[in-house]
């Protein structure tokens, strides 16, 4: 006897038996066997060895058996691709079966078999099924196209299935329409560039008709698809909204949420003055409330979505506060979420109710919930000023309960209230001090110490209180230690006489006995401040503190807008965009709310253009990007690496900083960037002074090679003016001007040494400015500048520096350093140096954009005393990258339509009216960022008059 | 049901047609004929304009029953005043009618309903314009409508709870007394009353005597439940006694919340009443019935 039997017997047993049964003649036995196989498969046993035997059972007229075999195939075809080919014939045959159920089954299963060889055979049957007379087959085939596209996108495109799928949107059967939409949406999502769902008013109309008739899941597909549509004006948006609102009364909460999503999105386009807007707001509230009557899990999903909606449009639920009141047996996750929404909805009108509720919650059992309730009271006080007093007294009542964690939490929030309303509620300090001993959590201790330090002059025994904390200084957490240090220094500054000893003690504890660098540093700073200049110390330590903001933990507006587009999906539950948690190669499409067209509110919407000025810089021409990279590399690595090939790596992925509003601003350029806005990491404003000369010239070459994008003639250059007189700069005189030549901006400087000593070690820095202008290379002065000597330098600039809005917009603050000192001056740069070479808009685009920009963004200016004719004007402006797109003659007047683009991607459209008899021109400017208009006008004037 | 991750059909009528639910008769037939519960015909309803109804329905007794069930969710504060109260109502239907009947249901007072969500079968337009429910019903049991009444003045509170729960600071004994009584019941009896309350941790045991019903206190979970039964307005049920508290500890900070369950038959507390039910499209005369019931949902009394 050997031990081999242990290996052979078990191995044979089951599989062997099944094999025999599968090959049995009796139908019943066969079916039983396949069922057994499926059962083993489901629990995870490997039954792939039976593949040929199971496939043999495929040719049967028994539907149940067929379904089981198909199930098996889906699971194992991938592991046995060669064998799976054997099944193809049956599939093809089944696709012609008279029973539509079998046809659909075959086409569905084939789509699920992810084997390349099979997909080739799938095309013909699929084409037939897409045109099948039975809608059930058509709708199954529609989904199959999406499956196939996932396996082999090229094949699907070559075979023209996408067009067939688009045709199915007009199908007579609503379910087919719904499935076609679902399939197209899925394909479009994985190929954001394909522009598959180019919906137009006609197809939207078809979808809306199908919406009323198809099943609940079909409705969801259609609604989700509608949400991605961008109506062309507010009237279209309104008519879609009207047809979608009935869905709010659907029993399926997913349908309701999808409808809410569509409405929330399109509402963005409706003017708030519209009656319909108000009606819509009213209609949205009840369904949201009703969602809360479901099971706790569904409630949670609803609450997370409501949380977003409330942040976007608090007016919808402002009267529904009560439904968010917490029941004591709600699960904790529902409780916390309800509490959050309650605070967001709190207003002067309902604060009394809210406070009474919160107080009730603060006596509950669940510690987490109680803590959050106490915090909520504090947030109410900060949010609704009128209620602050009542909140404070509520908190005091809670402190009286002496429940340890309640007291601690209350003290933490009272500290915030003190920050918000300084010098208003100090009367409560005495009560707080009574509870000093019971505080054992660092946050509460730190808060209490902060209060004592801040109000030291009003607390008689502040020194004793702080001293008591000092005893166990080294056992405290860092937070408390830092706070204690600051508080004692404050105390010392307020009552210097009695507390000298105390402050010395804490300083020595912090600086000598502590191994925490933060604490030591802070200790040293205080020590030196106090020893060198106590008055300055007072100014620094007891400075006015900035007020704390009203609303904490709000979701950032751009993220909020994106999440609104994902209502009813996981993203809205996580409060994270899908890109944050969806893995895989799928292209993530960033969705954004449509820009508001309602004229009165263009300034309010975060998407519209004014923000464009402070916006993150958009590298306009590739050289600047490469150049930036060069800088970065030099900072980190040392040897310069050639820039351009690496330029793409500067692209920081799809950080959509400004939402969709910017896309239209960027025009064709953002398309070139793969549909997503690029975001260049803000480089340090200082250019490393260690850069060697060869690099500087290398960069110069780079500019020359790649910079020539537009016209070759440079734009107008103003004569140099004195920027920094010698008197102010210890003998250094700087005069200069700005120029733009073949795509690069430079600052032409003349440095003159009017002092009696030699100057050397020049360096230059710009402050942050409106368009992110920054030196592209360090200031190169090769030899020391002797007295009475001048040197001319051209400093290349780029626009990838940090951005800060300046007033006036074109103000530039410059610091120049030499071996003597640092000097500051500011100058205004003409805006036309920022006009880029590819600022020529297409006619159609110009027309659409001109219409699209609201009228109040239009500004009119007069350019007086200019004697040029239209053609001369046109060519002169072209030299400075202002492009004439069209010219018209209306009643003897010449109208020039022009466009230009700024380095940060802002388009400016202009209409210039020239009357032959009149030397005054009328200039109308339209721009999404109207504040630039004035400076563009100045640029026009400068160019035309010189 | 699911294809490529898309849910397609979850309507129970369709699913039942795809895979027939096992019955004794069917099992017997299957064993004899060798057929299965898996339907081999395409469910016709799935593609029609009425995807929720299967075709070829036949009954010998044609009947349509509607249950109007309302649940009151309420929070009552210490002093007995209502903090929030709302009614979640549903109309569940059991319709067993032959053919393709077209029903209309009208209410005496449809304006009561604040927010409604319908089964897909209900024609929304007619509701909007005439406040009439017009629909071709699915076969069998389904939820026709759920609604919501939240306007506070409309929500009557059918019962009240008088409570006197006191923990004393020094002694280890506490007093406990609750009485339940009817309030606005429109003359109907309140039955199936059940009082539960989560007592604070400090309560070791309770010695209580109910005037009716049975009570249990679980000293481990600290859950007190009192099965009251019917409320007799002449002799209000009460539960009195004392609590043994953990000695030496201070009195509990939180007060127990009382959770109440009850049922009132033949009453929709919102006052909703069905006016009439008509059938079109088929010739026979169906058997109609409407039942009302009010229940406590999340009905809580704070003490």
UniProtKB/TrEMBL annotation, chain A:
Keyword Glycosyltransferase: no
Family annotation (InterPro entries): AP_beta, AP_complex_bsu_1_2_4, ARM-like, ARM-type_fold, Armadillo, B-adaptin_app_sub_C, Clathrin/coatomer_adapt-like_N, Clathrin_a/b/g-adaptin_app_Ig
Main location: membrane
Highest taxon listed in the record's lineage: Eukaryota
Keyword Protein transport: yes
Sample GO molecular function, one term: clathrin binding
Gene Ontology biological process terms in this record: intracellular protein transport; vesicle-mediated transport
Cellular component aspect of the GO annotation: clathrin adaptor complex; cytoplasmic vesicle; endomembrane system
Region span, Disordered: 586-619
Protein family according to the UniProt entry: Belongs to the adaptor complexes large subunit family.
Classification via Pfam families: Adaptin_N, Alpha_adaptinC2, B2-adapt-app_C
Membrane topology term: Peripheral membrane protein
Clathrin adaptor alpha/beta/gamma-adaptin appendage Ig-like subdomain domain span: 716-826
Chain ranges of the Beta-adaptin appendage C-terminal subdomain domain: 835-945
Alphabetical keyword list: Acetylation, Membrane, Protein transport, Transport
Subcellular localization: Endomembrane system
Stated name of the protein: AP complex subunit beta
TrEMBL record, chain B:
Taxonomic path: Eukaryota, Metazoa, Chordata, Craniata, Vertebrata
Places the protein is found: Endomembrane system
PANTHER family assigned to the protein according to its UniProt record, in alphabetical order: AP COMPLEX SUBUNIT MU
Family as reported in the entry's similarity comment: Belongs to the adaptor complexes medium subunit family.
InterPro entries registered for this protein in UniProt: Adaptor_comp_med_subunit, AP2_Mu_C_sf, Clathrin_mu, Clathrin_mu_CS, MHD
A UniProt-annotated Pfam family: Adap_comp_sub
Gene3D superfamilies referenced in this protein's UniProt entry, alphabetically: Mu homology domain, subdomain B (2.60.40.1170)
One GO cellular component term: endomembrane system
One GO process term, biological-process aspect: vesicle-mediated transport
Designated name of the protein: Adaptor related protein complex 3 subunit mu 2
